[in-house]
From TrEMBL:
It holds the Pfam family DUF485. This is DUF485 domain-containing protein. Keywords: Membrane, Transmembrane, Transmembrane helix. The keyword Membrane applies. The chain crosses the membrane at residues 38-59, 71-94. PANTHER family: INTEGRAL MEMBRANE PROTEIN-RELATED, MEMBRANE PROTEIN. It comes from Kyrpidia tusciae (strain DSM 2912 / NBRC 15312 / T2) (Bacillus tusciae).
Length: 116
């Protein structure tokens, strides 16, 4: 069964709007710029942090073997920190996505207001 929210979105998309006008509106451009400003650094950070683990495992074995506490070494700590990093990024994204949703709603209101 289709999600009722999706049906609502589909109805809004079906409405005829001048999409070129929407894409060139200042509010829409601001939304896209804000998303880029957050997503590009977040993705770059994620990829660098993620690929450091296999890179360190292959090329910095002595660093990964440094004992932190008892049998726990830096490699284990760094590997587990990946989970913390992903949870942190997810939390940040949810906060930013809520802002993006509010901005998108303003764009939609402008489009609806301009079409009346």
């Amino acid at each position: 069964m289709a999600d009722p929210r999706m049906r609502s979105v589909e109805k809004r998309v079906e409405a005829s709007h001048n999409w070129e006008e929407v894409a060139s509106s200042p509010a829409f451009r601001r939304l896209i710029e804000e998303k880029k400003r957050f997503l590009v650094p977040a993705v770059v950070f994620f990829l660098v942090y993620y690929f450091l683990l296999p890179s360190f495992a292959g090329w910095a074995k002595s660093l990964m073997a440094v004992k932190v506490s008892g049998a726990i070494n830096f490699g284990y700590v760094f590997a587990l920190s990946q989970f913390v990093m992903v949870w942190g990024l997810a939390w940040l994204y949810v906060r930013k996505a809520n802002q993006f949703d509010r901005m998108a709603e303003k764009v939609a209101q402008e489009v609806r207001g301009g079409g009346e």
